[in-house]
Design a protein that fits this description.
Number of domains: 2
Number of strands: 0
Order of helices and strands: HHHHH
Distance between the termini: 43 Å
Helix content: over 70%
Oligomer: single chain
Radius of gyration: 17 Å
């Protein structure tokens, strides 16, 4: 955890990002920690499956987003406090997965890949 915080702190310095309050710094460091976790998950999955998202394009990424959204709706929106507490890990993982698929969708759109590389 300390290594991750040091990486984030160095990145913020390199990017010349400053803060008005310590609370802003803390929330930015926490946000960045999640972003680094997302990067690690993306790299791990990309090693396993390659750039498989290119095959399905933005529309395929959107389907994954819909699936994660539906799962979160069941875990969070339709649940009571006790159920939410029991499924906190699943909620957090699905939220991170949803964020990763959002970035993948952006990557596909930036590359002009809406339908998948074999389906254009």
């Amino acid at each position: 955890m300390e290594k991750t915080r040091a990486v984030i702190e160095n990145l913020l310095l390199d990017l010349d990002i400053t803060f008005d309050t310590e609370e802003q710094r803390d929330s930015t460091v926490a946000f960045s920690g999640f972003m680094l976790h997302m990067l690690k998950v993306f790299v791990r999955k990309n090693k396993q499956y390659g750039n498989s998202f290119e095959e399905v394009g933005a529309k395929g990424a959107y389907i994954e987003i819909q699936a994660k959204h539906a799962r979160l709706r069941e875990l969070l929106w339709k649940a009571d406090a006790e159920s939410i507490a029991q499924h906190l890990g699943d909620i957090q993982q699905n939220s991170l997965d949803l964020s990763i698929y959002g970035v993948i969708l952006c990557m596909c759109m930036a590359a002009g890949n809406v339908y998948g590389v074999d389906n254009e």
